[in-house]
Amino acid sequence: MAAQIKWFEKSKCDLENVDCDIVITDAVAYNNGQEFANMIRDRKNYTAWMTTDSTDAANTQIDVSLGDPRSIDTILLLGQNFKSYTIQYKNGIGSYQNFSTTINPTTNTLEHKYHTFTAVNATDIRIIILGCMVVNDDKILKQLIITKSIGAFTGWPQITSPKIDTQRKSVKMLSGKLRIIEGLESFSCSLDVKAWRIQDDIDILETIYFKREGVLMWIQANDANQFFLDLKGYRKDDIYLVRPTDNWEPLLLSGVYVNPIKVSMALAEVIS
């Protein structure tokens, strides 16, 4: 059965975390890409960290300091070319250690990787890249998401009014032709269910409405097979920080206490 929409807390290394610091170590590269390090936490798929003249033998290291201890159980690497790598954490005391599920792939061929493990309180994350999919390629990583799961729906809401808005505006020139002006992309949609009675899903909805900050919405949920078309917004690397733009209205059908509720939640991509 296909996966359902997954929800996560805002990434603990999000660009808004002013206490987060990233240090790149590479003994071989002409440029280890340190000046691009923050691009892996800016929520954009069109920016990236990348090395210049690195090799597999360099064992390139990405050290991420989160500041205060943060509870995490999920790490996503989006838009990368790592064949072999390890990820460990430090809880502020002692040395780096493995997660409950060791992260140590050696034959990876996937551009986007999703790792889950038993929740830990982490102050630091270390990624050591031991080899690329093409031997001695420069390393690249578009997004690093370090987060904690809120949950995944069991029910099946209808995704309505999906929109990727570029704030397109047109100006008519003297020639009669139009000049089209566009800005950055932003995502929005609505989730509709006529009768929702699954308590775990209701708990997730209430968390989203009352968290008072953005949450990460992953429609594809690591299951590309559920979509016949490869559409922007539904791809594996389309993970959006969203908030409801409407209010929580737990309307029981016909006002009967034992009935399910009708839900229509409007979501929009947010800054924080």
Short description:
This protein is 4% helix and 44% strand. The protein is built from one helix and 16 strands.
What does this structure look like?
With 272 residues, this protein is mainly β. The protein has one helix and 16 strands. Strands 1, 8, 9, 12, 13, 14, 15 and 16 form an eight-stranded antiparallel sheet that branches. Strands 2, 3, 4, 5, 6 and 7 form a six-stranded antiparallel sheet that branches. The protein has a two-stranded antiparallel sheet with strand order 10-11. The protein has two domains: 7-150, Sandwich (Jelly Rolls); 158-269, Elongation Factor Tu (Ef-tu), domain 3 (Beta Barrel), CATH 2.40.30. Strand 10 (169-172) and strand 11 form a beta hairpin. It has one helix at 199-210; strands at 6-9, 21-25, 49-50, 60-80, 82-90, 113-132, 140-147, 149-152, 158-165, 169-172, 178-181, 186-196, 215-218, 239-244, 251-252, 261-269. The chain is globular, with a radius of gyration of 21 Å. The mean pLDDT is 95.
